[in-house]
Amino acid sequence: MDLTVRGFWGPRKEAPLRLAGRLEGFLRRLQEISGGTLIDWHTAEDGDIALDSEVLADYIVAANPESDAEQMGYTTSLWAQQAGVMRVEVSTTVGGTAEYTGNRIVVTVQPAGDASPAGLAGMAWSALVALAEEWEPDWGDVSDEVTRKAVQTSNGIRRSDPRCGYAVYLSSGRRALVPVDFPGDRTPTRDDGLVIVLPAVGGGFVTVEDVVSLDARLRRAGALDKLPVPMNRSRW
Q1: Counting Cβ atoms within 10 Å, is residue 151 exposed (0-12), middle (13-18) or buried (19+)?
Q2: CB of 192 within 8 A of CB of 137?
Q3: What pLDDT is attached to residue 114?
Q4: What is the model's pLDDT at position 234?
Q5: Is the preceding omega at residue 230 within 30 degrees of 0, hence cis?
Q6: pLDDT, position 151
Q7: What pLDDT, on a 0 to 100 scale, did the predictor assign at position 79?
Q8: How far apart, in whole angstroms, are the C-alpha atoms of residue 118 and residue 166?
Q9: Tell me, what's the pLDDT at 108?
Q10: How many CB atoms lie within 10 A of CB 65?
Q11: Given this model, what pLDDT does residue 198 score?
Q12: Are 151 and 157 spatial neighbours (Cβ–Cβ below 8 Å)?
C-alpha cells in the first residue's frame, strides 16, 4: 500500500528563499521521524542535494524557469530512501497566487518488504503533523488511492475537494467546526490547527468504510467545506 501525506492551501505568495526554509524544515522533520535514516535527499533527476536553505532556493529557481512560476507556484520533486523500509518522495507546487489552482505538497511513502503497518502508520501521522506545522496548509490528509476514490464516489465530491483520510489535518477555522464527540486521537498543531487520526482497532489503519462515514460527518459539520472559488485566501 502506497500512502500519501498531503497538504493543500489557497493563494499565498512566497519567495523561493522562504519556500526553501519551509522545505528544509520539513525534510529535517522527516529525518527525525525516520529515526535519522532519511538523510540523503536527491532531486528527481537523481542529483544529491544538501538540506540548506540557500541551496534549496537555488534549486527551486533553477527548476522553475517559467515566467509564470510566481503565479502558478514553484514545482519541486525530491526523494530519499530508508533501505528495506520505504522510499519517500516529496513533491510541491507552492508559493503561487493563482485563484483557481492553489498550492500543495504531496509526500508519497512507498513501503518496502520489511515495513510494518503499525510503523508505517506512526510515521505517516507524525509526517502529517510536521507538514501542517512547516507549511501551514488549509487542510491535509493521510490516505491511499482506494480510500480517496471511495470517499469521492460515496460522498459525491470532486477530486480536488477537501476530504478525510486515515488521518486528517484541519486549519484553525475548520478545527472550530469539528463536533466535540468526533472520534479519534487529536494532536493540536502550533498553527492552531488539528490533526485527527481516525480510530482503528489494534492500531494501524481504520477501515475504508469508516473513513467514508467519518468524512461524511465532518462534511455535514462544515469542517470540509471548500475555500471560495476564486480563492481569496490561503486558509479557511
Answers
A1: buried
A2: no
A3: 63
A4: 97
A5: yes
A6: 98
A7: 96
A8: 13
A9: 96
A10: 7
A11: 96
A12: yes
Residue-level pLDDT at 220: 98
b/e per residue, 184-201, with b = 16+ CB within 10 A?
Answer: beebebebebbbbbbebe
Name the one residue in this structure whose C-alpha cell is 538540506: 51
**Hey, which bits of 56-177 come out as E strands?**
74-82, 86-94, 103-111, 139-143, 167-170
Distance between CA 32 and CA 35 in Å, rounded?
5
CA dist., res. 210 & res. 128, Å (int):
20
Residue 134 parent element (H or E): helix 117-135
Phi-psi region of 22 (alpha: psi -120 to 50; beta: other; left: phi over 0): alpha
Alpha carbon 184 to its chain centroid, in Å, reads 19
Rounded to 5°, the CA angle 106-192-9 comes to 35
State the burial class of residue 217 (Cβ atoms within 10 Å of its Cβ: 0-12, 13-18, 19+). Answer: middle
Tallying the residues shown for the chain, one arrives at 236
Rounded distance between C-alpha atoms, residue 210 and residue 233, angstroms: 31
All residues at 6 or more sequence positions from 214 whose CB lies less than 8 Å from its CB, including other chains: 164, 182, 183, 184, 198, 206
CA–CA gap between residue 69 and residue 77 (Å, rounded)? 15
* Average pLDDT, consecutive stretches of 10 residues, N- to C-terminus, the chain (236 residues): 93 98 98 91 91 97 96 97 87 97 95 73 94 98 96 95 97 98 97 95 87 98 96 94
| C-alpha span between 200 and 190 (Å, rounded) | 25
Record the cell numbers describing residue 205, joined without a space: 489503519
Cell numbers at 236, concatenated: 479557511
Question: Are residues 198 and 210 in contact, defined by beta-carbon separation less than 8 angstroms?
Answer: yes
